[in-house]
From TrEMBL:
GO terms for cellular component: cytosol. Keywords: Signal. The keyword NADP does not apply. GO terms for molecular function: unfolded protein binding. This is Molecular chaperone Skp. It comes from the Bacteria. Belongs to the Skp family. GO terms for biological process: protein stabilization. The keyword Signal applies.
């Protein structure tokens, strides 16, 4: 009986350690957070620079429109310019949002997040899980 006592105790302790370790893992759960994509976009350097650039283009188009006397031609040119500007904005915003999404993935890997959600599609999220500020700091310090 003494011969089996030590191996049995060892097996019981091993099983106990595995059970306790598994219970600890399930209690901590996945690391998650959410970001406000609108706030991120408005604070993203490339978007800020693009907005300045597009405003310069709008001012240039407005100056050209001011020179046109014929109201019909002026309206036609205005609609053309508006379409050009809207296409540039949509295209650039799509590219920048794709860049930001890639940065979110990098941030999640670096910081050990299992899930990062978009706050615009959530019904509710506790402020404790809002990581927008941390993500913005990461964007400022990450290699461009």
């Amino acid at each position: 009986m003494k011969r089996y006592f030590f191996p049995v105790i060892l097996v019981i302790l091993t099983i106990f350690a595995v059970v306790v370790g598994t219970a600890q893992d399930s209690k901590s759960g996945p690391k998650l957070g959410y970001i406000d994509p609108n706030r991120v976009l408005q604070n993203y350097d490339k978007w800020i620079n693009f907005q300045k650039q597009i405003q310069d283009e709008i001012n240039k188009y407005q100056a050209e429109l001011d020179k046109i006397k014929d109201q019909n031609l002026k309206q036609q040119k205005y609609l053309e310019y508006q379409q050009i500007i809207n296409q540039k904005i949509a295209q650039t915003q799509q590219q920048i949002e794709a860049e930001i999404l890639q940065k979110v993935k990098e941030f999640a890997e670096v910081m050990g997040y299992d899930f990062i959600f978009n706050s615009t599609t959530m019904a509710y999220g506790s402020q404790a899980y809002n990581i927008t500020d941390a993500f913005l700091r990461y964007l400022r310090t990450a290699k461009k």
